[in-house]
Structures are given as structure tokens and as C-alpha cells.
UniProtKB/TrEMBL annotation:
GO biological process, one term: methylation
Domain Methyltransferase type: 103-194
Family of the protein in this entry: Belongs to the methyltransferase superfamily.
Keyword Secreted: no
GO cellular component, one term: mitochondrion
Highest taxon, organism lineage: Eukaryota
PANTHER family linked: ARGININE-HYDROXYLASE NDUFAF5, MITOCHONDRIAL
Transmembrane feature ranges: none
Compartment(s) where it occurs, according to its Swiss-Prot or TrEMBL record: Mitochondrion
Record-linked Gene3D superfamilies: Vaccinia Virus protein VP39
GO molecular function, one term: oxidoreductase activity
Protein's recorded name: Arginine-hydroxylase NDUFAF5, mitochondrial
């Protein structure tokens, strides 16, 4: 059994839930071709500019997701996305309003929509680069519309949506600042973006174990874990994209597996395998066995299981509008911090005079 343990960095609350059984063999199956989904190839808001870093092979990521969606027991790998999707939905419920039209960027199987009610979101557009995942979207209360589109090129007009959400897909985007600008553009004024993405400390156990094993066995190492965004950079990226009233917080989710190979198999089943351009295509058997031994020695639990840590970064940003609360102008204060001590002293004297 895989154990999923989560603790929120800002609240200290803990959640323990058990998901699924041990990993079984992956089996692909042939399935009939369903009716085609809507495909929007026009790139109205392309943000790719000269000098943009091209770290990830997006075509490879599309193939990985397609392969993951074809697995016979594909639902058993949804535990992490379902958990994070529910937490994104919680943040939507914290906003006391109804959103007539919303967009889910990189929705997968619509892991957020299943936790929402039609009283909160009336209509929802779902986008993903994988048609296989869109065909497997989960049931939800509100009407949904599937659009096969790349997160890096949103095919929507400006000022269209009241709410944009995203969960565990933006860490594969090459031009993250450009993608955030596009999200800002498709939002209506006073619209809100709520997202979750994988942070820089994710899978540090697996990264360190593979690096140590490769250094010992092969005399050097190559990147097997994709680079992730640091939480310290996220606020700046949102601000540069034009968002205001920003909120950024961090969750840490630990999932316990029988061994390192089970971690790697589940990542593959999630469609989360490495897709950087300079990835190493082959990992030697001796290196894998050495890495598994290092993993268990350095991070193993007393019961023989090993943890895998996922750092989840949550972000909220609003598109500016004149109705939003604005900070007071510099020098407009009518009281000084130096007077606070006098106020507290006067309150204390009043309590003394009136026992």
C-alpha cells in the first residue's frame, strides 16, 4: 500500500490517507477511436519571443501523457493529482463569488472540476495537450467543454474568463513568464488565477540517489529529474505578468513506496517522466540498483518503505480593476507607530480606574 502523508507548511495541519495498492505491470490496450475533440490550433496569444529558454521537449511530454492515458489501470496513478486538485478547489471556495466562465489550463482528467459545484463555477473550459486525458475527464456538476491546446499557446481572446485554474502542469512549460502573461490576458478585469505547480524541492531523495550512484558507477551524472521553479521566484513571476494582490504558499506531500523502482514506475504512470532535451536516454542496470540501495540507506523508513517528497507551490493572483482595494498613498497616515505605546498606556490606566 502506498501511504500519502501531507503537511501544510503554513498551517501545520496534517493529513493521512492511503491510496491504491502496490504497483502492477503496465499493460496497454487497444481501444476504439471516439469522436474527435475540438482542436484550436490558432495561437492568438503566442508569447514565445527571441531568447526564450527551450528546456523541455513538449512533443515528448505529449507522448508520455498519451502513453499514460492508455494504461489499463490509469486511474491508480491519479492519487497525487486528485489530492492537489481538491486543495486548489478549496482555495476557489474561499472566494465568496460565483464565476460564470472558468478555464482549467493543463486539466488532465479534470482533477479540479470534480471537486467544484455549479453554484461556484457555472461553465468550465478544459484544456490539455493530450486528447487521451481529455477523453477520460471525470464527471462534474457544471457543463464542461474540452479543447485540445498547448499551455504555452492559449487559443482564447482577451478578457474572456472570470477564473483561470491550473494544477500540476505548469512545471513543464518552457516560457513560464509568457504563459502567466497569457493567463493574465484571457482573464477579465477583477478575474483571479489560482494555480498549483511542483516546486524546487520535489523528489530530492530520488535526485540525490541517482546522482550519487552515477558518480560512483560512471564517474559523472546527467539530469534525470526535471528542473523546477523555486518558491522565492514565483511572486516575482506573477508580479511581472501583471497580477496583483498575490498569495503564495507551500504544501509538502510525502508518498511512501516499497522502493525506488516503485517511485519511478508511478511517475511514469502519471505521465511525469523526465522530458528535458539533454536527458540521458539510458540508465545502466548497475546504476539503478546502486541508486535504489542509496535511496533506502539514506531515506528509508523503519518499515522498509521509502518516502518521495513533492513540494507543491500554490499561487493566487488577481487581474487589476478599479474596484479592488488599493494601498494608501505614502504620507497619508493619520497616526504614528510611535503613538501606539501611548494608546496602550491610556487603555491600561482606564482599566485601573474602572476595576
Amino acid at each position: 500500500m502506498n501511504n500519502l502523508v501531507s503537511s501544510r507548511a503554513v498551517g501545520g495541519a496534517c493529513l493521512l490517507c492511503r491510496r491504491g495498492a502496490a504497483v502492477s505491470a503496465r499493460v496497454t490496450q487497444q481501444r476504439p477511436h471516439p469522436p474527435p475533440l475540438t482542436r484550436l490550433s490558432s495561437r492568438l496569444l503566442s508569447s514565445r519571443q527571441g531568447g526564450t529558454m527551450n528546456v523541455f521537449d513538449r512533443n515528448m511530454k505529449r507522448r508520455q501523457k498519451k502513453w499514460a492515458s492508455s494504461l489499463q489501470e490509469h486511474n491508480k496513478y491519479d492519487y497525487l493529482r486528485d489530492e492537489v486538485g481538491s486543495r486548489v478547489a478549496d482555495r476557489i471556495y474561499d472566494i465568496a463569488r460565483t464565476f460564470p466562465l472558468a478555464l482549467d489550463v493543463g486539466c488532465g482528467k479534470s482533477h479540479i472540476a470534480e471537486h467544484l459545484s455549479k453554484e461556484v463555477v457555472e461553465r468550465l473550459f478544459l484544456t490539455d495537450i493530450s486528447d487521451g486525458l481529455l477523453r477520460q475527464k471525470k464527471e462534474s456538476e457544471m457543463p464542461t467543454h474540452c479543447v485540445m491546446a498547448d499551455e504555452e499557446f492559449l487559443p482564447f481572446r482577451e478578457n474572456t474568463f472570470d477564473l483561470v485554474v491550473s494544477s500540476l502542469s505548469m512545471h513543464w512549460i518552457n516560457d513560464l513568464p509568457g504563459a502567466l502573461r497569457q493567463i493574465h490576458q484571457v482573464l477579465k478585469p477583477d478575474g483571479v488565477f489560482i494555480g498549483a505547480m511542483v516546486g524546487g524541492e520535489t523528489l530530492y531523495e530520488l535526485r540525490c540517489s541517482l546522482q550519487l550512484a552515477e558518480l560512483e558507477r560512471e564517474g559523472g551524472f546527467s539530469p534525470h529529474i526535471s528542473p523546477y521553479t523555486a518558491v522565492t521566484d514565483l511572486g516575482n513571476l506573477l508580479g511581472q505578468a501583471g497580477f496583483n494582490m498575490l498569495t503564495v504558499d507551500v504544501d509538502e506531500i510525502q508518498v511512501h513506496y516499497p522502493g525506488m523502482l516503485d517511485v519511478m514506475c508511478d511517475l511514469q504512470g502519471m505521465g511525469e517522466s523526465n522530458c528535458v532535451w539533454n536527458r540521458k536516454s539510458l540508465l545502466h542496470r548497475d546504476t539503478i540498483l546502486a541508486a535504489a540501495a542509496v535511496y533506502k540507506e539514506m531515506y528509508g523508513n523503519e518499515d522498509g518503505s521509502v518516502p518521495a517528497t513533492f513540494e507543491i507551490l500554490y499561487m493566487i493572483g488577481w487581474k487589476p480593476h478599479e474596484s479592488q482595494v488599493k494601498p494608501a498613498k505614502r504620507g497619508s497616515a493619520t497616526a504614528s507607530f510611535a503613538d501606539l505605546s501611548k494608546i496602550s498606556q491610556s487603555e491600561a490606566s482606564i482599566k485601573t480606574d474602572n476595576p
